[in-house]
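Memo to structure team: turn this sequence into structure tokens by end of day. - J.P.
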Amino acid sequence: MNHPLRLVLVLHNHQPIGNFDGVFEQAYQDSYLPFLDVFERFETLRIALHTSGSLMEWIDAHHPEYVDRLAGLVASGRIEIVGGAFFEPILTMIPARDRIGQITTYTKWLQDRLGAQIRGMWVPERVWEQSLASDLVRAGIGYTILDDFHFKNAGLDAEQLHGYYVTEDDGQVLNVLPGSERLRYLIPFQDPPETINHLRWVAEHHPGAVAVFGDDGEKFGTWPGTKEHVYDRGWLTQLFEALEANRDWLKVTTPSEAIENVPPLGKLYIPEGSYREMTEWALPAAKINEFEDVHHDLEHQGLWEKVAPFVRGGFWRNFKVKYPETNAMYARMQMVSGRLEQAIESGATGPLVDEARIELYRGQCNCSYWHGAFGGVYLPHLRNAIYQHLIAADNLLDQAEGRGWQTGQQPWVELTSEDYNLDGRPEARLANNRLTALVSPAEGGQIYELDANAIAHNLLATLTRRPESYHRKVQQGPSSANGEVASIHDQIVFKQEGLDERLGYDHWARNSLIDHFYAEDASLEQISEGHVEELGDFVHGPYETKLRRSEGRVQLQLVREGHVRETAIRITKGITLNANEAALEIAYLVENIPNDVTLRFAPELNFAGLPSGADDRYFRDKEGQILGQLGTRLDLHDTHDLGLVDQWLGIDVGLSFDRPTAVWTYPVETVSQSEGGFELVHQSVAVVPHWRLVPDVNGRWSMTMRLVIDTQLAESRMVESAEVASV
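Reply from structure team:
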């Protein structure tokens, strides 16, 4: 083999922070373990493996024998461990200090546990911007792998990609290997001879070339239909046998070996981007459909291959625009990162600060911050997990300052105003040792985050129902792959029946204190389906603010003069928080109400992380009587109290009103896409108190509600767990 073709196989194994233990276990049994079982038998083959820190920590805790086997394969030179950012963040989304910190922290973990020498890293979702190169090198990284799509965007064609290039930023030089899209679609979906034939063609036309396959390890067993295909029907064994049978001209090797023995093809600066599908998903929904239509038209005309190298999709960062919920998470992450940095600069050290850093890193895991063929931001348990770790980081920093929620810490309360969500306009933050509430005066005076600190849970980690490009596929109905193994991008699978009838869209974000005005005959059905006319301009209208502070008590006052149809109305709402209280007092004053016009006022609240479909998650009345599961549609009249209980989470959210109140409740559910197909997902519980406004002699109407977040059940469990652990 004077000039062999070097085939670099790089597997990327990942499960996100917050995924269910059962999902981790299933992926381990279906993908990670059987792949290793097959690979170990082929002693002449060498591969590279990247396992995200969130997955590696889980495997090490639940299946340490697997990690021991990896360490043995590393020691024998058969597996090169590819490093990365510890908890798989999109690198362009986090501050440079956190990029370097995540990479170096994970490098040390891999060195300590596996004895691995880390030379390269996996770029999460291959989201690239050129300025990353210098941070990677400063973190001790010598190479990374991107898709050939990145290189084609820089002006290269397929014939120039049978090797690797160097790139540079701020004087720091990095090796970059192009992963082959052709190999990504051959492996494992086509028979092994197809892969061998493709590689043989490359070897004949480019002696001494390097070909790189870099893709998800979950394609080998976890993706629908692949377990039977890859293992039960022997596809992976057949591939490895074919690779060994052709070792006279084909060398299956590692990235480091290829870089050490093959010179780079040249130098290249790489435009921002990701893999092709990701750039398409980042586009607005309507633009994705336009893109697909044009793509198909050009393909039909035989022009797509000529045009494709010059076609760019969207910019990854615009997921934060496409899904404002991800921007809220992102902005919250930046708040925590900035606070941690300030604490460190002020000299803070010790275990609590170190733990806060790891919690921050966990809260940067990328999967909840975007959506494509995978559930991503549509999966409530992933969103909840991000907030859980970010709130936990804040709690640890509070504890380090002696003002945490735990018994014995100093009670406090504060009201501040800054541009917390990075939209160029100020928001307000009411916080004490028990609660944190973020309010957007510019967007209807709505509360968009409400954290119960003791359980590190954001009750407003909600999601708005919005059109998605794939909804036109939902309207077409499910399709079948006719027994063939198909890429997840090509399947139309319904995980529940009738999803085409469950599509619905919201015209407002699912926050709290959304000030609606409806016609008097508006019904629960109309409200829940979104088929109701909004009569006022208060939902999205800006409110003026006053910040009031006194000893042990703060109040945010919000005022707007707007209209309900032609009627000029003034709303004042106050949000009050006391030190050491897990409760918000919310007062409304509506003025200038005419006597001759009937108005129905309905300030909507939403609560996330309280799922439906379980008997231990339910509505209750004042006496504790169960009114139905949290997915129940309620139409209550003349009530003063309503509670939402989640016994699994250990929380009781209580609402009380100082005047008789009618209340609608209903579940907010989305039809969304995941790797397993299209599914209906419970996102939040909407609670809509509403009144027919009857003014006093001065044309005014007022109401006060109290929102109490009781986490005593969860806290008692924490005490019990701590006592057991200390025994």
